[in-house]
Amino acid sequence: MFQERRERREANRAFDHGDGVTRYRMQQKMVSIGDDYWIDDESGDHVYKVDGKALRARRTFHLEDGQGHRVATVQSRPLRIKDSMAIDDAEGHRVAVVKKAVISPVRDRWTIKQEDGDDLTVDGNVVDHEYTIERDGYKIAEVSKKWFRVRDTYAVDIGPDADHTTVLAAAVAIDSMAHPGD
């Protein structure tokens, strides 16, 4: 048990030092019809576009690569007790479901239930964009505004063993559910 805890702590420390981590910048447009914005890499290049679909019964976001090809769709799941959003791949196959807990007395609790793979947990302050995404206690991604002073801009650092598209789509879903009126 102690060995496992030590290994997890060392892996998380390596993540914190940037070993194999890719940083993305999420910057939402201040005024945009349908919530369109870009996800940039560390050098400022547009890597993904988040295309929010306005005037639909369900909140829908398409993630497109730099060439405009859809790589994922994030869509709300109405008529559910728990607030949740589904993530589908480019072919429309379910990849994951992001869920918010019904009751959370102290802090927000979120899970990312993956179709193929272990479930992920979200820990931290979701509303302020300061949280981590973990698999079995190992940090696979971190979302933080600490690197940016601009409103509605935050970083998503993703480790080498994570599916970047799924993590970014989950961040879009969490942001949409945590800030429904924005």
Sum this structure up briefly:
The protein is of the alpha+beta class and 182 residues long.
Structural features, described:
By secondary structure, the protein is α+β, with helices and mostly antiparallel strands. It is 16% helix and 42% strand. It has helices spanning 2-16, 164-178; strands at residues 22-28, 37-41, 46-53, 60-65, 70-76, 84-89, 94-100, 110-114, 120-125, 130-135, 138-144, 153-158. A hairpin with a 4-residue loop joins strand 4 and strand 5 (70-76).
CATH topology grouping: Tubby Protein, Chain A
Spans where pLDDT lies below 50 across 5 or more residues = none
What do the pLDDT scores average to?
84
Structural class assignment: alpha+beta
- In percent, how helical is the residue content? 10-25%
Describe the sheet with the most strands: 12 strands, antiparallel, barrel
Number of domains: 1
In total, the number of strands is: 12
Instruction: Provide the gyration radius in Å.
Output: 16 Å
Compute the number of helices. Answer: 2
The name of the CATH superfamily reads Tubby Protein, Chain A
Architecture in CATH? Alpha-Beta Barrel
Pattern of helices and strands: HEEEEEEEEEEEEH
| Side-by-side strand order of the widest sheet | 1-2-3-4-5-6-7-8-9-10-11-12
Quote the beta fraction: 35-45%
Q: Note the overall shape.
A: globular
CATH class: Alpha Beta
Terminal-residue CA separation: 44 Å
